[in-house]
Design a protein that fits this description.
- There is one protein chain.
- By secondary structure, the protein is α/β, with parallel strands linked by helices.
- Helix content is 51%, strand content 16%.
- It has 14 helices and 10 strands.
- A 4-stranded parallel sheet has the order 2-1-9-10, with helices on both faces. Strands 4-5-3-6 form a 4-stranded antiparallel sheet. It has a two-stranded antiparallel sheet with strand order 7-8.
- The longest helix has 20 residues, at 59-78.
- It starts with a strand and ends with a helix.
Length: 315
């Protein structure tokens, strides 16, 4: 029998106008965007639907915008009766997965990621931290590079282990630049600086962790109704206290995305459905294992196409 995982994208997948077509057509979808506006006491839906892009791309806006759009799409898609055996999300997307699994209410999820975005932006002064994607270098070799640079006085660490040959590093501007040079010397094909507002998923984010804990302590959390594969451990988790601790660690720890996908495959998952704008995670999953089936649900047409495809497979 087919085993399905729903996966939810993180920052970088946002686009102006995401979710608008569905929201205009279905009042229940629009209700999610309205709830977000009410929760945050700001017209975020207008920014999502109309832009400008520069403002939508700000971390404090992107995080609640992506969670809102992904959950609205999930609600529409789940009317088909398709259910997940596991859920997971990339960085911010983990919060979407937790809403999908009933750990957080939708409103609390929106509030939590808005605060998370604020804490992440404020943890390190603008311009002092950076991130870069390193292509074509093995994990062990890149880890040795970041360790060497950090020990020399410039903090840098592995941040996102996305798929074979694609790892993001994060840390101080000097640390990321030095590690980029050494990574090329060690055999990396390319080092691409990323346009981000801070050194996310690095030890430099630790000042934000205590602030995030205060926010999460103030929210009611439930045990997960569907196992959530955590970014920090790449293991399924369902107990709310463990989930909360992992969310705090997630701020300054690497996102083990490749490991998480491999874990779900080992648990029998053969079908991954990416729910949210873009196809970033579907692309990464195919690079991790070509044998699995991937689908993307980003609007009404793609949702209906996936539902039809799944029906055909079960006939």
């Amino acid at each position: 029998m087919k085993k399905i995982a729903f996966v939810f994208p993180g920052q970088g997948s946002q686009t102006v106008g995401m979710g608008k077509e569905l929201a205009d057509k279905y009042p229940k979808v629009m209700a999610y965007f309205t709830k977000t506006d009410e929760t945050l006491k700001t017209p975020l839906s207008r920014l999502i639907f109309e832009g400008p892009k520069e403002e939508l791309t700000l971390t404090v806006n992107t995080q609640p915008a992506l969670l809102t759009t992904s959950i609205a799409l999930l609600d529409f898609f789940q009317k088909s009766g398709v259910k997940a055996d596991y859920v997971a999300g990339h960085s911010l997307g983990e919060y979407t997965a937790l809403v999908a699994a009933g750990v957080l209410t939708f409103e609390d999820g929106v509030y939590a990621v808005r605060k998370r975005g604020e804490f992440m932006e404020n943890a390190v002064p603008n311009g002092e931290g950076s991130m870069a994607a390193v292509l074509g270098l093995e994990r062990d070799k890149l880890s040795a590079v970041t360790k060497e640079v950090t020990e020399s006085g410039s903090s840098v660490a592995l941040a996102n282990l996305n798929c074979p040959g694609q790892i993001v590093i994060s840390g101080s501007k000097a640390g990321v630049e030095a590690a980029g040079v050494k990574a090329k010397e060690a055999g990396a094909k390319r080092v691409l600086p990323l346009e981000v507002s801070g050194p996310f998923h690095s030890p430099l984010m630790k000042p934000a962790a205590s602030e995030l804990r205060e926010v999460l302590d103030g929210l009611e959390m439930n045990d997960a109704s569907i196992p959530v594969v955590a970014n920090v451990t790449a293991e399924p988790v369902s107990v709310k206290t463990e989930i909360k601790n992992l969310l705090i660690e997630q701020l300054y720890s690497p996102v083990l995305w490749e490991d998480s996908v491999q874990k779900m495959i080992a648990l029998g998952v053969d079908t991954f459905i990416e729910i949210g704008p873009g196809k970033v995670l579907s692309g990464l999953i195919k690079k991790i294992d070509k044998a699995v089936t991937t689908y993307s649900v980003s609007d009404e047409a793609s949702a209906l196409a996936v539902i039809d495809a799944l029906k055909e497979e079960t006939l």
